[in-house]
Amino acid sequence: MKAIPFNRAVRMISRGTWSFLTNRPLVVSFEVTHSCTADCMHCDKGNMKPDPEGLLQAADYKRLRAMLKPMAVQLSGGEPLLRKDLEDIVRAVKEPSGLPYTILVTNGRLFTEEKYLSLRALGVNQFSISLDFPDDRHDSFRKSPGLYEHLSKLVPTLAAHGYDDVAMNTAITRENLTSLRNIYDRAKQWGVNISYSAYTPLRTHSMDHYIRSADDLALLRRTLDDLLALKARNGRIANSPWTLSGIHDFFLHGTIPGCKAGQRFMVVTPTGGLRPCSMFDNTYTSHQEILKQWVPKNECGGCYVSIRSYLDASFWTLLKDNLSNRVFSKNGAAKNC
To answer: What does the H/E/C string look like for 103-143?
Structure first.
């Protein structure tokens, strides 16, 4: 991804430091809807659903952003582009300072070049688009015919604008294990970045997509080593080296201890419930309640999704990683890393 401009990076580091010191979440995921245009095999939020009673509106997101003061927010779902008031929600979560760093997570079905330009003008800093396979197997896995063809035309068009703010997001499963390198090649061909995470059975309660056999684990290890080498040579992989390596450990051991859900990151449901993470239905009325009731008892290690894996690191590791990946020109404008 393109380096963050110096002034904004300083504000993000200051906000992140303050969050660490005050025990506030660095990242908040606003699940603006639980409806989705797809029905993915590895997810529990598929298909369309009626809007629930008490669906949060833009003013509610502004209040929550002011209360939680995160360094970064995710606008996710379900499929967030189903919200007709998404632009108002983006305006609500952004401060005049440009914070929080804002990421839109989408399957891309409803995404267009016009929506991309409009949302980034309003302050969306990064667009994360799911990609499970480098071909039309993606459609079958997501039960969404024609989706891959749509992405194959749309994503290069977005990349051609030169903002370098689009990343494909791949959840590693048993089905796409042999395609991980080809997915990287496809993202590179399209001119965008790629981020990998690990499938978790916590969402679906199914081990069908989990990587368990010795042969598959060995292939995963070789593939991740290959991706680490590609990251060092060519970039384009958004994962930090320790998170990429940790994916193998997660599948090997079936757990990664030390989850900071509810402390470093948290989720807001479409109706305003506060949850430590999206894997469980435990819902609270305040972040302080999460800190008192959930965090001390949290021994879960059952996922290694991107947000969790990245925020497991120590404060100093996160600070060093962010600084080492930012290159600034003398006038404060960002250069490409």
So the answer is: EEEECCCCCCHHHHHHHHHHCCCEEEEECCCCCCHHHHHHC
Q: Which two tokens stand for residue 314?
A: 């120590």
CA 64/CA 44 separation, integer angstroms? 25
Domain locations in the chain as residue ranges: 6-324
Beta-bridged to residue 270, according to DSSP, are: none
Q: Which fold has domain 6-324?
A: TIM Barrel (3.20.20)
Distances (CA, A) of 193 to 27, 170, 327: 21, 11, 18
What is the number of other CB atoms lying within 10 angstroms of the CB of residue 291?
18
Place of tokens 């010191």: 21
Residues 116-145: pLDDT tens digits?
A: 999 999 999 999 999 999 999 999 999 999
Would you state the torsion angle of the CA atoms of residues 253, 43, 33, 257, taken in this order, to the nearest 10 degrees?
0
Q: What is the pTM of this model?
A: 0.91
Q: Read out DSSP for 281-311?
A: ---BSSHHHHHHHTGGG--------HHHHHH
Residue located via tokens 């948290």: 266
Distance CA 184, CA 40 (A): 21
